[in-house]
Design goal:
alpha/beta, Urease, subunit C, domain 1, TIM Barrel, nine-stranded mixed sheet, eight-stranded parallel sheet, disordered C terminus, binds (4S)-2,6-dioxohexahydropyrimidine-4-carboxylic acid, binds zinc ion
């Protein structure tokens, strides 16, 4: 590496040389030149412009930084589980340069004021860039437009109960929320579980004296996920809302996902490494209760179809649902819990997801270009960031991960940078590690240690394609507007027959 004084007539800030660049479609030897935080040249090896700093990537794979669209960094309100400094350090060490934080904090991110308060916490402490979700709840439908204007990356709808106990909106409120979101064009991430069913079953299981780890799965059996997915997609098709199914855990959902996609619903789907690698059967082993999460980790038979979904197009991306809790909340200091119902749901993941997926590449399950698509390109496209993130292209932010595909590590809870020192992968060996993570040209992690300066991370706003709302003449806004067209007048007739003729309706013209 040259220092600025010794570099020959540097014209750019940094060059990464002698690495193998990995895109969604290709792998090739090349150099990357970076200036003022952006990629300014991609050249054959040795042909990059002179640079103040040269990073030798011999033997390394060079990937765009990963985007994790699903983390819980817990503040405000639950800083004993995580905060932006520890969470973003875990992300950077794991090769993740952008995270989207979920709104089930305390308070929840339900108003522009809540959003501003959370953004201030993140801006002060984060070493990676971030998007912030707004809550789509029954009590804050009147805040959706303002949250969008204030720059949320998208919205989060909890159809199933989970950490935070946020009330699940009624179907009426969800439909109204989707009507509003369809006009805005922002994507709504959905926790697709049916809350009335899971509560009903959980109560019955508890009454029957079930406290074992499998009882959690029994409460949230497959139909809990399949029903909520289909309800969400039905309402999305009707309204034209863009939706994203978070943490898809269930092989039985996959044919439904393919069907909704084939109908043209703007539906993206994430799964998590834990659904690929872990099984409910393992939750019965000593210490296996730490696997408790929502939706549950299912029987091992779900794994192969979900792996297949990563390459057949049913599943678009890998996220983590990084959901740290304290050791006591997870009862992780015991071999078995007093009752599975008392074990907090979720565990850390942002630091281990790329190593686990690189291990899958070494095992021949995926190609490295698949990893780039699943962990960088697809998340950027789905959430309106592909103008700056998710690819090694000219003009993009220089968010770059250098990977050593041969490096090995044993995953251990006490090595995690997250405040949640609980691992679902304790003792598992991974092969393939991020060894250097760069955010907009700045090195934020190296050789397993965070080196970024807290406060480096920026709040990202999405640039989505034009909204494509449907059935606009039946939205609650349209039918309750005081200036709505009168029943039977020429404009009403024109709208009415346009709707019945085409099935779908274009946006109402004023
Ligand atoms: O297990 C989970 N934990 N699932 C979720 O949906 C939320 C998460 C959390 O916030 O702890
Ligand atoms: Zn989550």
């Amino acid at each position: 590496m040259h220092s600025p004084e010794t570099a020959p007539q540097s014209v750019v800030d940094t060059v990464i040389t002698n690495g193998t660049l990995v895109t969604e479609t290709a792998m090739f030897a090349g150099d990357i030149a970076i200036h003022e935080g952006r990629i300014v040249a991609i050249s054959s090896p040795g042909f990059a412009p002179p640079a103040a700093r040269v990073i030798d990537a011999t033997g390394r794979m060079v990937l765009p930084g990963c985007i994790d669209v699903h983390v819980h960094f817990r503040v405000p309100g639950m800083g004993h589980k995580e905060d932006w400094q520890t969470g973003s350090q875990a992300a950077a060490v794991g090769g993740v340069t952008t995270v989207f934080d979920m709104p089930n904090t305390s308070p929840a991110t339900a108003t522009p004021e809540d959003l501003a308060a959370k953004a201030a916490l993140a801006e002060a402490a984060s070493i990676v860039d971030f998007g912030l979700y707004g809550l789509l709840g029954e009590q804050n439908l009147d805040q959706i437009d303002a949250l969008a204007a204030a720059g949320v990356i998208g919205f989060k709808l909890f159809l199933g109960n989970t950490t935070g106990d946020l009330p699940c909106p009624s179907d009426g409120a969800v439909l109204e929320g989707f009507e509003i979101l369809a006009e805005l064009g922002l994507r709504c991430s959905i926790h697709a579980e049916n809350s009335p069913i899971l509560f009903w079953r959980q109560k019955a299981l508890q009454a029957a004296g079930r406290t074992d780890a499998m009882a959690h799965l029994a409460a949230r059996t497959d139909i809990v996920a399949v029903e909520a997915l289909n309800r969400a997609a039905t309402l999305a098709e009707w309204t034209g809302a863009r939706i994203h199914i978070v943490h898809e855990s269930c092989a039985r959902s996959l044919p439904h996902i393919r069907w909704w996609k084939s109908r043209g619903v703007d539906l993206t789907v994430e799964t998590l490494p834990q659904y690929l690698y872990l099984s409910a059967e393992e939750s019965l082993l000593p210490g296996g209760h730490v696997l408790r999460m929502n939706p549950p980790i299912r029987e091992a038979a779900h794994q192969a179809p979900i792996w297949a979904g990563l390459t057949d197009g049913s599943i678009d991306m890998i996220a983590t649902d990084h959901a740290p809790h304290s050791i006591a909340e997870k009862q992780a200091d015991r071999l078995a819990p007093d009752s599975i119902w008392n074990v907090a749901c979720g565990f850390p993941g942002v630091e281990t997801s790329l190593p686990l997926m690189l291990t899958a590449v070494n095992d021949g399950r995926l190609g490295l270009p698949d990893v780039v698509r699943l962990m960088a390109g697809a998340p950027a496209r789905a959430f309106g960031l592909s103008h700056c993130k998710g690819s090694l292209t000219l003009g993009a932010d220089a968010d770059i991960v250098l990977v050593d595909m041969k490096a090995r590590a044993i995953l251990r809870a006490d090595k995690l940078h997250s405040r949640g020192k609980v691992s679902a992968y304790e003792g598992r060996e991974v092969t393939g590690l991020p060894v250097l993570t760069m955010l907009r040209g700045m090195v934020v992690a190296q050789d397993g240690a965070p080196v970024g300066v807290p406060g480096t991370g920026r709040h990202l706003r999405p640039i989505m394609p034009s909204p494509a709302p449907r059935n606009c003449d039946t939205t609650l806004r349209a039918v309750t507007a005081t200036d709505r067209p009168a029943f039977g007048d020429p404009f009403w007739l024109q709208q009415h027959f346009a709707t019945t003729r085409t099935g779908f309706h274009r946006p109402a013209t004023p």
